[in-house]
Amino acid sequence: MTIYAAIAATRFGMGARPQELDRIGSDAQGWLTQQIGAPSVCSIGEVPTAAEGLTFLQTEYQALRRQIEEDGADPEEVQRRLRERISEPRSAHISARTNLALTTEHSFAERWVRFWSNHFSVNSNSRKLGIIAPTLEAEVIRPTAFGKFEDLLIAAETHVAMLIYLDQAISVGPNSRAGQFRNRGINENLAREILELHTVGVNGGYDQDDVEALARILTGWTVGSRRLRSDPADYGKTVFEPRIQEPGTHRLLGRRFGGEGQERSFQALRFLAGRRQTATFIATKLARHFLADDPSERDINHIARAFRDSDGELSEVARAVITAPAAFDPTPAKFKTPEEFLISSLRALNCQGLNPRQLYTAYASLGQAPFSAPSPAGWPDRVEDWASPDAVLKRLDFASTLAERVGQAGRPRERAQAVLGERMSTDTALSISRAESAEQGLTLLFMSPEFQRR
Fold first, then answer.
1. Closest CA to 127 of 81, 75, 187, 188
2. Cβ–Cβ < 8 Å for 274, 150
3. Do 283 and 315 have their domain in common?
4. Are 280 and 370 within one domain?
Protein backbone atom coordinates (compact mmCIF):
# COMPACT_ATOMS: atom_id res chain seq x y z
CA MET A 1 0.00 0.00 0.00
CA THR A 2 1.31 3.48 -0.90
CA ILE A 3 0.07 7.02 -0.44
CA TYR A 4 -0.78 6.97 -4.14
CA ALA A 5 -3.36 4.25 -3.56
CA ALA A 6 -5.07 6.45 -0.97
CA ILE A 7 -4.95 9.45 -3.32
CA ALA A 8 -6.46 7.41 -6.17
CA ALA A 9 -9.31 6.13 -4.00
CA THR A 10 -10.04 9.47 -2.36
CA ARG A 11 -9.21 12.24 -4.83
CA PHE A 12 -10.42 10.44 -7.93
CA GLY A 13 -12.73 7.83 -6.43
CA MET A 14 -15.59 7.99 -3.95
CA GLY A 15 -13.50 7.05 -0.92
CA ALA A 16 -11.82 3.81 0.11
CA ARG A 17 -13.70 0.77 1.32
CA PRO A 18 -12.05 -1.75 3.66
CA GLN A 19 -9.25 -3.65 1.85
CA GLU A 20 -9.57 -1.41 -1.21
CA LEU A 21 -6.19 0.27 -0.73
CA ASP A 22 -4.58 -3.17 -0.59
CA ARG A 23 -6.26 -4.10 -3.88
CA ILE A 24 -5.04 -0.90 -5.53
CA GLY A 25 -1.53 -1.62 -4.27
CA SER A 26 1.37 0.10 -5.96
CA ASP A 27 -0.36 0.62 -9.32
CA ALA A 28 -2.71 3.51 -8.55
CA GLN A 29 -2.50 4.81 -12.10
CA GLY A 30 -3.41 1.41 -13.50
CA TRP A 31 -6.36 1.10 -11.12
CA LEU A 32 -7.76 4.38 -12.42
CA THR A 33 -6.99 3.71 -16.08
CA GLN A 34 -8.78 0.37 -16.20
CA GLN A 35 -12.02 2.10 -15.21
CA ILE A 36 -12.02 4.41 -18.24
CA GLY A 37 -14.28 3.71 -21.18
CA ALA A 38 -16.51 0.99 -19.78
CA PRO A 39 -20.13 2.25 -19.63
CA SER A 40 -21.32 -1.00 -18.05
CA VAL A 41 -19.57 -0.17 -14.77
CA CYS A 42 -21.69 3.01 -14.55
CA SER A 43 -25.10 1.38 -14.97
CA ILE A 44 -27.54 1.63 -12.06
CA GLY A 45 -29.81 -1.07 -13.46
CA GLU A 46 -33.54 -0.87 -14.09
CA VAL A 47 -35.05 2.46 -13.04
CA PRO A 48 -38.08 4.35 -14.42
CA THR A 49 -37.48 6.17 -17.72
CA ALA A 50 -38.52 9.76 -18.34
CA ALA A 51 -41.47 8.67 -20.47
CA GLU A 52 -42.56 6.15 -17.83
CA GLY A 53 -42.27 8.81 -15.15
CA LEU A 54 -44.42 11.31 -17.03
CA THR A 55 -47.01 8.63 -17.79
CA PHE A 56 -46.99 7.64 -14.12
CA LEU A 57 -47.53 11.26 -13.08
CA GLN A 58 -50.43 11.72 -15.48
CA THR A 59 -52.07 8.46 -14.38
CA GLU A 60 -51.72 9.28 -10.68
CA TYR A 61 -52.97 12.82 -11.17
CA GLN A 62 -56.07 11.66 -13.03
CA ALA A 63 -56.81 8.97 -10.44
CA LEU A 64 -56.56 11.40 -7.56
CA ARG A 65 -58.72 13.98 -9.35
CA ARG A 66 -61.42 11.31 -9.65
CA GLN A 67 -61.16 10.69 -5.91
CA ILE A 68 -61.89 14.36 -5.27
CA GLU A 69 -64.63 14.79 -7.88
CA GLU A 70 -66.42 11.45 -7.56
CA ASP A 71 -65.69 10.24 -4.04
CA GLY A 72 -65.52 13.58 -2.25
CA ALA A 73 -62.02 12.92 -0.91
CA ASP A 74 -60.30 15.65 1.07
CA PRO A 75 -58.21 17.66 -1.44
CA GLU A 76 -55.37 18.23 1.03
CA GLU A 77 -55.13 14.54 1.83
CA VAL A 78 -55.20 13.72 -1.88
CA GLN A 79 -52.39 16.20 -2.51
CA ARG A 80 -50.36 14.61 0.28
CA ARG A 81 -50.82 11.16 -1.23
CA LEU A 82 -49.92 12.51 -4.65
CA ARG A 83 -46.67 13.95 -3.28
CA GLU A 84 -45.84 10.59 -1.73
CA ARG A 85 -46.60 8.67 -4.89
CA ILE A 86 -44.64 10.91 -7.23
CA SER A 87 -41.63 10.78 -4.93
CA GLU A 88 -41.32 7.04 -5.58
CA PRO A 89 -39.56 7.20 -9.00
CA ARG A 90 -37.06 9.76 -7.71
CA SER A 91 -36.42 7.67 -4.60
CA ALA A 92 -35.75 4.66 -6.82
CA HIS A 93 -33.09 6.61 -8.74
CA ILE A 94 -31.46 8.05 -5.62
CA SER A 95 -31.38 4.67 -3.92
CA ALA A 96 -29.94 2.92 -6.99
CA ARG A 97 -27.20 5.49 -7.64
CA THR A 98 -26.27 5.69 -3.96
CA ASN A 99 -26.01 1.95 -3.52
CA LEU A 100 -23.89 1.76 -6.67
CA ALA A 101 -21.58 4.44 -5.24
CA LEU A 102 -21.33 2.50 -1.97
CA THR A 103 -20.50 -0.86 -3.52
CA THR A 104 -18.72 -0.17 -6.79
CA GLU A 105 -15.11 -1.16 -7.32
CA HIS A 106 -14.98 1.44 -10.09
CA SER A 107 -15.47 4.58 -8.05
CA PHE A 108 -13.43 6.81 -10.37
CA ALA A 109 -15.89 5.98 -13.15
CA GLU A 110 -18.75 6.80 -10.79
CA ARG A 111 -17.21 10.14 -9.81
CA TRP A 112 -16.69 10.89 -13.51
CA VAL A 113 -20.40 10.24 -14.17
CA ARG A 114 -21.39 12.52 -11.31
CA PHE A 115 -19.18 15.32 -12.58
CA TRP A 116 -21.02 15.29 -15.91
CA SER A 117 -24.39 14.90 -14.23
CA ASN A 118 -23.65 18.09 -12.30
CA HIS A 119 -22.33 19.79 -15.46
CA PHE A 120 -25.69 19.14 -17.14
CA SER A 121 -27.61 19.80 -13.95
CA VAL A 122 -31.40 19.49 -13.84
CA ASN A 123 -33.26 20.51 -10.69
CA SER A 124 -36.24 18.51 -9.44
CA ASN A 125 -38.07 21.69 -8.41
CA SER A 126 -41.56 20.71 -9.56
CA ARG A 127 -43.75 17.61 -9.58
CA LYS A 128 -42.92 16.86 -13.18
CA LEU A 129 -39.19 17.47 -12.76
CA GLY A 130 -39.18 15.63 -9.45
CA ILE A 131 -39.96 12.49 -11.42
CA ILE A 132 -37.81 13.02 -14.51
CA ALA A 133 -34.77 15.02 -13.31
CA PRO A 134 -32.82 11.86 -12.38
CA THR A 135 -33.51 10.25 -15.75
CA LEU A 136 -31.07 12.48 -17.64
CA GLU A 137 -28.22 10.99 -15.64
CA ALA A 138 -29.47 7.43 -16.07
CA GLU A 139 -30.36 7.67 -19.77
CA VAL A 140 -27.70 10.06 -21.08
CA ILE A 141 -24.76 10.59 -18.74
CA ARG A 142 -24.10 7.02 -17.66
CA PRO A 143 -24.08 5.48 -21.15
CA THR A 144 -22.15 8.38 -22.74
CA ALA A 145 -19.73 9.72 -20.10
CA PHE A 146 -16.68 8.15 -21.75
CA GLY A 147 -17.77 8.84 -25.33
CA LYS A 148 -17.41 11.98 -27.43
CA PHE A 149 -18.35 15.27 -25.81
CA GLU A 150 -20.41 16.36 -28.82
CA ASP A 151 -22.56 13.23 -28.51
CA LEU A 152 -23.01 13.80 -24.79
CA LEU A 153 -23.88 17.45 -25.44
CA ILE A 154 -26.51 16.66 -28.07
CA ALA A 155 -28.08 13.90 -25.99
CA ALA A 156 -28.19 16.03 -22.83
CA GLU A 157 -29.63 19.15 -24.45
CA THR A 158 -32.38 17.23 -26.24
CA HIS A 159 -33.35 15.03 -23.30
CA VAL A 160 -36.88 15.41 -21.98
CA ALA A 161 -35.69 16.57 -18.55
CA MET A 162 -33.52 19.35 -19.99
CA LEU A 163 -36.20 20.45 -22.45
CA ILE A 164 -38.71 20.82 -19.63
CA TYR A 165 -36.32 22.25 -17.03
CA LEU A 166 -35.11 25.08 -19.27
CA ASP A 167 -38.46 25.65 -21.00
CA GLN A 168 -37.33 24.54 -24.45
CA ALA A 169 -40.43 22.36 -24.64
CA ILE A 170 -42.58 25.52 -24.88
CA SER A 171 -40.27 27.46 -27.22
CA VAL A 172 -42.01 28.20 -30.52
CA GLY A 173 -40.54 30.00 -33.50
CA PRO A 174 -42.74 33.09 -34.09
CA ASN A 175 -42.45 32.68 -37.85
CA SER A 176 -42.98 28.92 -37.80
CA ARG A 177 -46.19 27.36 -39.09
CA ALA A 178 -47.52 26.97 -35.55
CA GLY A 179 -46.09 30.23 -34.25
CA GLN A 180 -48.09 32.35 -36.64
CA PHE A 181 -51.30 31.12 -35.01
CA ARG A 182 -50.19 30.98 -31.36
CA ASN A 183 -49.45 33.61 -28.77
CA ARG A 184 -46.09 32.04 -27.95
CA GLY A 185 -42.52 32.88 -28.81
CA ILE A 186 -38.96 31.73 -28.45
CA ASN A 187 -37.59 30.91 -25.01
CA GLU A 188 -33.86 31.63 -24.60
CA ASN A 189 -33.17 29.69 -21.40
CA LEU A 190 -31.66 26.57 -22.93
CA ALA A 191 -29.61 28.52 -25.48
CA ARG A 192 -28.18 30.77 -22.77
CA GLU A 193 -27.21 27.90 -20.49
CA ILE A 194 -25.66 25.92 -23.35
CA LEU A 195 -23.33 28.82 -24.06
CA GLU A 196 -22.67 29.95 -20.49
CA LEU A 197 -22.61 26.66 -18.60
CA HIS A 198 -22.24 23.72 -20.97
CA THR A 199 -19.81 24.78 -23.73
CA VAL A 200 -17.76 27.96 -24.24
CA GLY A 201 -18.40 29.48 -20.80
CA VAL A 202 -19.30 32.98 -19.70
CA ASN A 203 -16.03 34.33 -21.13
CA GLY A 204 -16.38 32.39 -24.36
CA GLY A 205 -16.80 35.40 -26.64
CA TYR A 206 -20.54 35.26 -27.26
CA ASP A 207 -23.11 38.03 -26.85
CA GLN A 208 -26.88 38.39 -26.67
CA ASP A 209 -27.18 38.12 -30.44
CA ASP A 210 -25.58 34.67 -30.23
CA VAL A 211 -27.98 33.63 -27.48
CA GLU A 212 -30.93 34.68 -29.63
CA ALA A 213 -29.51 32.95 -32.70
CA LEU A 214 -28.97 29.68 -30.84
CA ALA A 215 -32.48 29.91 -29.38
CA ARG A 216 -33.89 30.17 -32.91
CA ILE A 217 -31.70 27.30 -34.10
CA LEU A 218 -32.95 25.04 -31.30
CA THR A 219 -36.65 25.54 -32.00
CA GLY A 220 -38.44 22.36 -32.95
CA TRP A 221 -37.31 20.29 -29.97
CA THR A 222 -40.14 19.57 -27.57
CA VAL A 223 -41.86 16.76 -25.66
CA GLY A 224 -44.50 14.58 -27.27
CA SER A 225 -47.99 15.20 -25.92
CA ARG A 226 -51.67 15.09 -26.70
CA ARG A 227 -51.64 18.89 -27.03
CA LEU A 228 -49.17 18.63 -29.91
CA ARG A 229 -51.19 15.79 -31.45
CA SER A 230 -48.11 13.60 -31.19
CA ASP A 231 -48.20 9.88 -31.83
CA PRO A 232 -49.35 8.34 -28.50
CA ALA A 233 -46.20 6.21 -28.55
CA ASP A 234 -44.21 9.47 -28.27
CA TYR A 235 -46.02 10.91 -25.25
CA GLY A 236 -43.41 11.95 -22.69
CA LYS A 237 -40.53 11.49 -25.13
CA THR A 238 -38.29 13.92 -26.97
CA VAL A 239 -39.71 14.75 -30.38
CA PHE A 240 -38.73 17.15 -33.13
CA GLU A 241 -41.76 19.10 -34.31
CA PRO A 242 -41.15 20.91 -37.64
CA ARG A 243 -44.29 23.01 -37.16
CA ILE A 244 -42.65 25.02 -34.35
CA GLN A 245 -39.17 25.37 -35.89
CA GLU A 246 -38.16 28.95 -36.69
CA PRO A 247 -37.28 29.10 -40.41
CA GLY A 248 -34.31 30.87 -41.93
CA THR A 249 -30.55 31.07 -41.51
CA HIS A 250 -29.08 32.17 -38.18
CA ARG A 251 -25.59 33.44 -37.35
CA LEU A 252 -23.93 31.92 -34.26
CA LEU A 253 -20.41 33.02 -33.28
CA GLY A 254 -19.68 34.00 -36.86
CA ARG A 255 -21.04 30.86 -38.52
CA ARG A 256 -24.35 30.55 -40.34
CA PHE A 257 -26.75 27.69 -39.71
CA GLY A 258 -29.74 27.19 -41.97
CA GLY A 259 -32.00 24.56 -43.40
CA GLU A 260 -34.85 22.65 -41.87
CA GLY A 261 -35.11 19.72 -39.51
CA GLN A 262 -33.12 18.61 -36.51
CA GLU A 263 -29.75 18.49 -38.28
CA ARG A 264 -29.48 22.28 -38.02
CA SER A 265 -29.35 22.15 -34.22
CA PHE A 266 -27.01 19.14 -34.30
CA GLN A 267 -24.57 21.10 -36.47
CA ALA A 268 -24.68 24.07 -34.10
CA LEU A 269 -24.06 21.92 -31.03
CA ARG A 270 -21.16 20.10 -32.72
CA PHE A 271 -19.74 23.50 -33.66
CA LEU A 272 -19.89 24.64 -30.03
CA ALA A 273 -18.42 21.34 -28.79
CA GLY A 274 -15.40 21.84 -31.02
CA ARG A 275 -14.64 25.42 -30.01
CA ARG A 276 -11.28 26.05 -28.35
CA GLN A 277 -13.07 27.99 -25.59
CA THR A 278 -15.14 24.89 -24.82
CA ALA A 279 -12.00 22.80 -24.34
CA THR A 280 -10.60 25.38 -21.92
CA PHE A 281 -13.87 25.80 -20.04
CA ILE A 282 -14.37 22.05 -19.59
CA ALA A 283 -10.72 21.54 -18.64
CA THR A 284 -10.95 24.25 -16.00
CA LYS A 285 -14.05 22.69 -14.46
CA LEU A 286 -12.46 19.24 -14.43
CA ALA A 287 -9.26 20.53 -12.87
CA ARG A 288 -11.25 22.43 -10.26
CA HIS A 289 -13.32 19.37 -9.42
CA PHE A 290 -10.55 16.80 -9.23
CA LEU A 291 -7.39 18.72 -8.38
CA ALA A 292 -7.77 22.11 -6.69
CA ASP A 293 -10.16 25.00 -6.15
CA ASP A 294 -7.73 27.21 -8.06
CA PRO A 295 -6.01 24.83 -10.49
CA SER A 296 -2.79 25.79 -12.18
CA GLU A 297 -2.64 26.83 -15.82
CA ARG A 298 -0.33 23.89 -16.34
CA ASP A 299 -3.00 21.40 -15.25
CA ILE A 300 -5.76 23.17 -17.19
CA ASN A 301 -3.67 23.27 -20.36
CA HIS A 302 -2.78 19.59 -20.00
CA ILE A 303 -6.45 18.60 -19.90
CA ALA A 304 -7.57 21.12 -22.54
CA ARG A 305 -4.90 19.85 -24.94
CA ALA A 306 -6.21 16.30 -24.59
CA PHE A 307 -9.74 17.56 -25.25
CA ARG A 308 -8.68 19.39 -28.42
CA ASP A 309 -6.31 16.73 -29.74
CA SER A 310 -8.91 13.98 -29.36
CA ASP A 311 -11.82 16.06 -30.69
CA GLY A 312 -13.53 15.81 -27.33
CA GLU A 313 -13.04 12.09 -26.76
CA LEU A 314 -13.89 11.94 -23.06
CA SER A 315 -11.96 8.75 -22.37
CA GLU A 316 -8.82 10.63 -23.44
CA VAL A 317 -9.83 13.61 -21.34
CA ALA A 318 -10.24 11.31 -18.33
CA ARG A 319 -6.72 9.98 -18.90
CA ALA A 320 -5.46 13.54 -19.00
CA VAL A 321 -7.10 14.29 -15.65
CA ILE A 322 -5.34 11.41 -13.89
CA THR A 323 -1.99 12.23 -15.53
CA ALA A 324 -2.10 15.99 -14.88
CA PRO A 325 0.99 17.39 -13.13
CA ALA A 326 -0.87 17.81 -9.82
CA ALA A 327 -2.82 14.55 -10.04
CA PHE A 328 -0.86 12.77 -7.31
CA ASP A 329 0.34 15.74 -5.31
CA PRO A 330 0.25 14.46 -1.69
CA THR A 331 -1.38 17.67 -0.42
CA PRO A 332 -5.19 17.20 -0.27
CA ALA A 333 -6.39 20.36 -2.01
CA LYS A 334 -10.14 19.68 -2.21
CA PHE A 335 -12.72 19.88 0.59
CA LYS A 336 -15.37 17.21 0.17
CA THR A 337 -18.88 18.25 -0.74
CA PRO A 338 -21.63 16.94 1.56
CA GLU A 339 -22.45 14.16 -0.89
CA GLU A 340 -18.80 13.13 -1.13
CA PHE A 341 -18.53 13.15 2.66
CA LEU A 342 -21.67 11.04 3.06
CA ILE A 343 -20.67 8.49 0.43
CA SER A 344 -17.07 8.17 1.63
CA SER A 345 -18.22 7.74 5.25
CA LEU A 346 -20.61 4.96 4.31
CA ARG A 347 -18.03 3.32 2.04
CA ALA A 348 -15.54 3.36 4.92
CA LEU A 349 -18.05 1.35 6.95
CA ASN A 350 -18.92 -0.93 4.02
CA CYS A 351 -22.59 0.07 4.24
CA GLN A 352 -25.04 -0.88 1.51
CA GLY A 353 -28.71 -1.53 0.83
CA LEU A 354 -29.86 1.55 2.71
CA ASN A 355 -33.49 2.66 3.04
CA PRO A 356 -34.37 5.30 0.38
CA ARG A 357 -36.16 7.56 2.86
CA GLN A 358 -33.20 7.47 5.26
CA LEU A 359 -30.84 8.23 2.39
CA TYR A 360 -32.77 11.28 1.25
CA THR A 361 -33.05 12.55 4.82
CA ALA A 362 -29.29 12.18 5.29
CA TYR A 363 -28.52 14.01 2.04
CA ALA A 364 -30.95 16.80 2.88
CA SER A 365 -29.62 17.20 6.42
CA LEU A 366 -26.15 17.84 5.01
CA GLY A 367 -27.48 20.34 2.48
CA GLN A 368 -27.01 18.47 -0.81
CA ALA A 369 -30.02 16.40 -1.76
CA PRO A 370 -29.51 14.71 -5.17
CA PHE A 371 -30.95 16.50 -8.21
CA SER A 372 -31.64 19.62 -6.14
CA ALA A 373 -28.86 21.99 -7.21
CA PRO A 374 -29.89 25.62 -6.67
CA SER A 375 -29.46 26.64 -10.32
CA PRO A 376 -28.62 25.25 -13.78
CA ALA A 377 -24.96 25.83 -12.86
CA GLY A 378 -25.16 22.75 -10.63
CA TRP A 379 -23.62 22.33 -7.20
CA PRO A 380 -20.62 24.55 -6.41
CA ASP A 381 -17.20 22.98 -6.05
CA ARG A 382 -15.09 25.18 -3.76
CA VAL A 383 -14.29 25.05 -0.06
CA GLU A 384 -16.02 28.33 0.77
CA ASP A 385 -19.29 26.87 -0.49
CA TRP A 386 -19.28 23.98 1.98
CA ALA A 387 -17.10 24.83 4.99
CA SER A 388 -19.20 27.34 6.94
CA PRO A 389 -19.43 26.73 10.71
CA ASP A 390 -23.04 25.58 10.38
CA ALA A 391 -22.20 23.18 7.55
CA VAL A 392 -19.31 21.66 9.51
CA LEU A 393 -21.56 21.25 12.55
CA LYS A 394 -24.04 19.32 10.40
CA ARG A 395 -21.21 17.01 9.35
CA LEU A 396 -20.32 16.46 12.99
CA ASP A 397 -23.93 15.58 13.78
CA PHE A 398 -24.01 13.11 10.89
CA ALA A 399 -20.67 11.56 11.87
CA SER A 400 -21.74 11.19 15.51
CA THR A 401 -25.06 9.60 14.58
CA LEU A 402 -23.39 7.21 12.16
CA ALA A 403 -20.74 6.25 14.71
CA GLU A 404 -23.40 5.57 17.35
CA ARG A 405 -25.26 3.23 15.01
CA VAL A 406 -22.12 1.27 14.20
CA GLY A 407 -20.91 1.14 17.80
CA GLN A 408 -18.11 -1.24 18.76
CA ALA A 409 -18.16 -2.86 15.32
CA GLY A 410 -16.59 0.32 13.94
CA ARG A 411 -13.03 -0.56 15.11
CA PRO A 412 -11.83 3.02 14.51
CA ARG A 413 -8.06 2.47 14.59
CA GLU A 414 -8.11 -0.40 12.10
CA ARG A 415 -10.68 1.36 9.94
CA ALA A 416 -8.70 4.61 9.87
CA GLN A 417 -5.64 2.76 8.64
CA ALA A 418 -7.70 0.88 6.07
CA VAL A 419 -9.36 3.92 4.50
CA LEU A 420 -6.73 6.64 4.96
CA GLY A 421 -3.59 4.56 4.57
CA GLU A 422 -0.45 6.65 4.42
CA ARG A 423 -2.52 9.83 4.22
CA MET A 424 -3.25 9.54 7.95
CA SER A 425 -1.21 11.98 10.03
CA THR A 426 0.43 11.17 13.35
CA ASP A 427 -1.91 13.60 15.12
CA THR A 428 -5.02 11.93 13.73
CA ALA A 429 -3.74 8.45 14.55
CA LEU A 430 -2.96 9.56 18.11
CA SER A 431 -6.34 11.23 18.68
CA ILE A 432 -8.21 8.15 17.44
CA SER A 433 -6.11 5.84 19.61
CA ARG A 434 -6.89 7.97 22.67
CA ALA A 435 -10.64 8.04 22.04
CA GLU A 436 -12.75 7.06 25.02
CA SER A 437 -15.04 4.85 22.94
CA ALA A 438 -15.36 3.30 19.51
CA GLU A 439 -18.08 5.81 18.72
CA GLN A 440 -15.83 8.73 19.59
CA GLY A 441 -12.97 7.22 17.61
CA LEU A 442 -15.10 6.87 14.48
CA THR A 443 -16.36 10.42 14.85
CA LEU A 444 -12.77 11.66 15.10
CA LEU A 445 -11.90 9.67 11.98
CA PHE A 446 -14.77 11.12 9.94
CA MET A 447 -14.07 14.68 11.10
CA SER A 448 -10.29 14.48 10.66
CA PRO A 449 -8.68 16.82 8.09
CA GLU A 450 -7.50 13.83 6.06
CA PHE A 451 -11.03 12.44 5.78
CA GLN A 452 -12.71 15.79 5.12
CA ARG A 453 -10.34 16.54 2.27
CA ARG A 454 -9.35 14.65 -0.81
1. 81
2. yes
3. yes
4. no
pLDDT of residue 69: 65
68 in any annotated domain? no
The answer to whether residue 422 sits within a structural domain is: yes
**Model pLDDT for residues 338-355, shown as the tens digit of each residue:** 999 999 999 999 998 788
Tell me, yes or no, if the pTM score tops 0.85. yes
3-state SS string over 342-391? HHHHHHHCCCCCCCHHHHHHHHHHHCCCCCCCCCCCCCCCCHHHHCCHHH
**End position of a domain, from candidates 294, 322, 350:** 322
Quick one: residue 292, left, alpha or beta (phi over 0 = left, psi -120 to 50 = alpha)?
beta
Which of the pair, 1 or 387, is modelled with greater confidence?
387
Residue 153 CA to chain centroid, in angstroms? 14
pLDDT in tens, 84-93: 777 888 888 9
pLDDT of res. 1: 62
Give every CB contact of residue 292 below 8 A, 6+ residues apart in sequence: 299, 326, 333, 334
Residues 286, 355, single domain; the answer is no
Residues 314 and 367 in one domain: no
Nearest-angstrom CA–CA distance, 351 and 17: 9
Is residue 337 located within the same domain as residue 437?
yes
Look at 61-70, 208-217, 308-317 and tell me which has the smallest mean pLDDT. 61-70
Residues 286, 321: contact at Cβ < 8 Å?
A: yes
Q: What's the pLDDT score for residue 370?
A: 94
Cα 189 from chain centroid (whole Å): 20
Long-range contacts of 301-308 (CB under 8 A, 24+ apart): 304/279, 304/280, 307/149, 307/278, 307/279, 307/282, 307/283, 308/276, 308/279
Predicted pLDDT at 289: 99
One domain, residues 298 and 357: no
Total structural domains within the chain: 2
Same domain, 338 and 280: no
Q: Do 394 and 356 share a domain, yes or no?
A: yes
Inside any domain, residue 238: no
Q: Decide if 379 is inside a domain.
A: yes
pLDDT value at residue 77 = 75
Cα–Cα dist 169/218, whole Å: 10
Cα(2)–Cα(23) distance, integer angstroms? 11
Whole-angstrom CA distances from 433 to 4, 32, 396, 414 are 24, 32, 19, 10
- Tell me the residue range of the domain where 298 lies: 276-322
- Per-residue confidence (pLDDT) for residue 245, from 0 to 100: 97
